[in-house]
Amino acid sequence: MDIVEETLASVTSLERTPKLLLWRTPFYDINDLKDLPASYQDFTRFHLPQTSLLMPPTLPGLDVELDWGPLPTFDDVKKFINVNPYGKRESWSSIKELSAEIAFQKRFDQHEPLNSLSKGLELSKSRDSKPNSFSDDQMDRRRPQRTFFVTREGNSIGGGTKAILNALAAYFRYLEGTTSDDWQEVHEKLRNAKSRVGASFGALFGPALHLGIISRRRVYYESIKYEKERNAGFRSPFSYPAAMVTAVVDTICSMEWYWLSALKSQISNNGTHSACIWRWRGSLIHYTVVGDKGPTVLLVHGFGAFLEHYRDNIYAIANSGNRVWAITLLGFGKSEKPITGYTELMWAELLRDFIVEVVGEPVHLVGNSIGGYIVAILAGLWPCLAKSSILINSAGNVNPSYIPRPLSKERPLLGPAWLGARLLLRFLRLRIRSIVKNCYPIKPERADDWLIDEMIRASYDPGVLVVLESIFSFNLSIPLNFLLKGYEEKVLVIQGMRDPISDSKSKLAMLREHCAGVTITELDAGHCPHDEKPEEVNSIICDWVTALETCNIP
Description:
Layout: H1 2-9, H2 40-45, H3 74-83, H4 100-110, H5 117-128, H6 136-142, H7 161-172, H8 181-193, H9 199-210, H10 216-230, H11 243-267, E1 276-280, E2 283-290, E3 296-300, H12 314-318, E4 323-327, H13 344-359, E5 363-368, H14 370-381, E6 386-392, H15 415-438, H16 449-458, H17 464-469, H18 480-483, E7 491-496, H19 504-514, E8 519-523, H20 529-532, H21 534-551
Parallel strand pairs: 3-4, 3-5, 5-6, 6-7, 7-8
Antiparallel strand pairs: 1-2, 2-4
Helix pairs in contact: 7-8, 7-10, 8-9, 10-11, 13-14
């Protein structure tokens, strides 16, 4: 507001200073984002009331004509996009059409990396044009004349506000049954999207919420309204009686928390790195970037960590003449934790889309632990995005007798995973300090209070249990020798030899035997050498990047 007022005050053509009206529609009645607690656990203790629905604002007229200047033409916009050095490459515009499963199948069928986008797209189109699949005309005839679903896939609800509210009413009454064709369609889609409790609401209504067709506050209001209808005009004092209402309210409150946290990170200067936000498939992803020129490096953390785990690497690598990006993966740190299936393939697709949409150029990938394995998947399936891969105590094994099998991001939720995640969360909160210190055998003091506190803070975020459930369904069966085949000369392995999680000597022996060409550097460190010995690791990474850029390996 201060900037707007200063700008208007400098306009000499105005006869009088316009009166400014601030239109705020907060979900929670919170006056200052700086007062927002860092922990969701502390936030819930505030019991902040939800604000009531407001009528649209009435703005005063402005009795003065302003010269807004010429609007840019389409050609002007296109020229700006093409000139932008960090814009999306036109040749990459279709790479996101290939899922990780299709890319893997392509490599499995032809025993080669997916270097050709055109060939991959042909495979995608051939899969989509199966003889027994329905044509567009057949699909149109199968759909009811009145439908809430606006996309070709028919998996998300769209239209105007009234249509969204009608679909929401159908969603609430899922267990009540209906004779309405459009409501029956919502119920059918709900059953297909209901792989996990609460996942269906985000899948069906997420796009409408993110586009602003309906607000989170309006959805919450409709939830309470439906609850009162079920309870003779009163709200139940014992939580929400309908399972669908509970799922909606939990999802809405979770989305609002992450949104407020993201806004606070934009105005807070507490961190050492600038906070940037990217929305991926409807969820908020935190990242940072340092440097404006030089080779591009992307840092990927391990399980349970976040971009700040590279606290002493980002600026050091950037100061050596590199442009450094670091990202917090979906489900970790301050990034959103939606109710979805978390798999290594999903995270690989996230990194792919981040490079295509945000970074805009091939990168030198750096990954620690499970982040290293995700980096290997990305480089193996979409090598055109990776200049090189640096694996720091990476997850994954070497299996020379590996026989590829079809992959899927959809993993069934089993009872043991549900129970195991809850027991694991309690155990981690009690033992996290000793567990992390064990990963720093040389410098245990690096597992300091800040690192531990941030991990504990994230463990109270809504959705964290769903992330932990994924541990029990991880598929690390694709060996590193398969993923890195034909790419070995651009792979650097940095291995802390005192890693308590894996047998470093055996792993390196297998890599040397079955991944000829891979460069290996051994360090006297634990599972996180980049944080335990940042100076050594920074020097190794910078020298590696410089050498490759000098040689200009294609």
